[in-house]
Design goal:
Layout (H helix, E strand, L loop, with lengths): L1 E6 L3 H14 L3 E6 L8 H4 L6 H4 L2 H8 L4 E4 L10 H7 L2 E4 L5 E2 L12 E3 H8 L16 E5 L3 H11 L12 H8 L5 E5 L11 H5 L7 E5 L15 H14 L3 H6 L2 E6 L2 E9 L1 E13 L2 E12 L2 E4 L3 E2 L8 E2 L4 E2 L5 E3 L2 E3 L2 H4 L8 H18 L9 H12 L6 H13 L13 H8 L1
Parallel strand pairs: 1-2, 1-4, 2-3, 4-19, 6-14, 7-8, 7-14, 8-10, 9-10
Antiparallel strand pairs: 5-15, 11-12, 12-13, 16-17, 18-19
This protein binds NADP nicotinamide-adenine-dinucleotide phosphate (NAP).
NADP nicotinamide-adenine-dinucleotide phosphate binds next to α7 and β11.
């Protein structure tokens, strides 16, 4: 019997569990740990609440989770409740699928002013992550700035723009919905340090901005390169740029019909935040792109902002006894192998890029590596106690483990508490989750 511990129950974790099961069938026991009492990581806390069709992938993970030889071990923090060397003594392989839950910092003057948030915190707030449920951003200013030209920036700009009716069917938590109802934001500036040909936004997500009820996207035609140059782009990016071109062509009278403006300010690199206790503006330097890089031109200006959300990427959390690459912000690994018997998948391996589906090959790939390591003998031949060993340790330490069956009770309670038309009302604190599970 092979004993595998996967740390993290998001997409990377469950695709890996699925791959292990395909590889070893009934000869494997997989324990999927999570620090929270609820599974699915990024699907629950990262994917936008109005993108329910993407969240549907959790049904596939549930199929894996309901197999006898896969077990959800929720409410257990690796590094606190159990150490990594302890896990290694119990399991043949320990795989980190812990994602990248922390915000990358810009490192700019004024970054600690009030009402400046990283996207992990801001997205966590509207998605009901227990760590960020109390964030309480102030949405009373007329101007907001979103930094970054990726899909997370689009998520944030869209959520800030939607009417309450447009959240029908979404699982945005009620505290965020109520706060957004009172929002006075009229202008959202999306700041990009490079130009239209360097955006990371994908066409479907960008296209959604054109369909918003009360917001209109605005692009300065001067920022767009000659249209012939688009032919050189890969097809996805070419489609995204076509959306920017169509935004640039929106006539003024159509803009005037919508009370919220989403302005793309490209070739603008933030240099400092201005404010007195609370943010009031972002100072930016005009840039030009040379050999793909943003280069400052020496021209500076301020963009007014009473709220700033920085969507510039994420870092993984280090865990004691696991080699960490500080510069890259993820575990130090060679194509998923950290050390013999210790592996990583998903954003903990690659950094925060790619779609949810990108995690699937990661899972299959790491299982192949474990097979190689088992066959070469580097993992040792001694039988490990796996589940039974963990259960004994959990009992000795009085760990309050939440099982998949417990999670199903939490899920049921969340579905029962849902607003009309919404799939669920999430619990936003850990104690409430645990109470519902018992
Ligand atoms: P991302 O796609 O890597 O975009 C990050 C953006 O931040 C880039 O435009 C980058 O500009 C900018 N940036 C980085 N450092 C900066 C700095 N110091 N100053 C100014 N700008 C800076 O990251 P993301 O938006 O966080 O998304 C993470 C991953 O999740 C992506 O793969 C994304 O596609 C995926 N995602 C997908 C969806 C969806 O499919 N619906 C939704 C959300 C997220 P440079 O390019 O110039 O570095």
């Amino acid at each position: 019997m092979r004993h595998i511990a996967i740390i993290g129950s998001g997409p990377a974790g469950y695709y890996t569990a699925e791959a292990a099961q395909k590889q070893w069938g009934e000869d494997v026991c997989v324990d999927v740990f999570d620090i929270l009492p609820v599974p699915y990581g990024l699907i629950r806390f990262g994917v936008a609440p109005d993108h329910q069709s993407i969240k549907g992938v959790s049904r596939r993970y549930e199929k894996t989770a309901l197999n006898e030889n896969v077990r959800f071990v929720g409410n257990v923090a690796v590094g606190r409740d159990i150490t990594v060397p302890e896990l290694q003594s119990l399991y043949d392989a320990v795989i980190f699928a812990t994602g990248a839950p922390n915000d990358r910092e810009l490192g700019l003057e004024g970054e600690n002013l009030a009402n400046i948030f990283g996207s992990a915190a801001f997205v966590g707030w509207y998605n009901g992550h227990p760590k960020f449920a109390d964030l309480d951003p102030d949405l009373s200013a007329r101007e907001a700035v979103v930094i970054g030209m990726g899909n997370v920036a689009l998520d944030v700009a869209r959520i800030l723009s939607k009417t309450e009716a447009e959240f029908e069917g979404a699982d945005i938590v009620t505290h965020a919905l109520e706060s957004l109802r009172e929002s006075r934001i009229e202008k959202i500036t999306i700041l990009g340090r490079r130009g239209p040909h360097q955006i990371m936004m994908t066409p479907k997500e960008l296209g959604e901005l054109a369909a918003l009820e009360r917001a209109s996207p605005r692009v300065d035609i001067q920022d767009l390169p000659d249209q012939e140059e688009d032919a050189l782009l890969e097809p996805g990016l070419r489609k995204s740029v076509a959306h920017l071109r169509s935004f640039a062509a929106i006539p003024e009278d159509i803009h005037a019909e919508k009370p919220i403006e989403i302005e793309f300010d490209m070739f603008a690199s933030p240099v400092r935040f201005v404010g007195d206790g609370k943010v009031q503006a972002v100072e930016v330097e005009r840039t030009k792109v040379e050999s793909g890089r943003a280069v400052g031109t020496g021209e500076f200006y301020q963009v007014p902002a009473g709220l700033v959300v920085s969507c510039i990427g994420y870092r993984s959390s280090p865990i004691p006894d696991v080699p960490f690459d500080e510069r890259a912000g993820r575990f130090a690994n060679d194509a998923g192998r950290i050390l013999p018997g210790m592996y990583c998948v998903g954003w903990a391996r690659r950094g925060p890029s790619g779609t949810i589906g990108t995690n699937r090959p990661d899972g299959y790939d790491v299982v192949e590596k474990i097979v190689e390591d088992l066959e070469s003998g580097v993992l040792g031949r001694k039988g490990k106690s796996g589940r039974a060993g963990f259960d004994a340790l959990a009992e000795e330490r009085k760990l309050d483990v939440v099982t998949f069956r417990d999670w199903k009770k939490i899920e049921e309670a969340e579905e029962q508490a849902a607003r009309e038309g919404a799939p669920r009302e999430k619990f936003v604190d850990i104690e409430a989750m645990i109470r519902a599970s018992r």
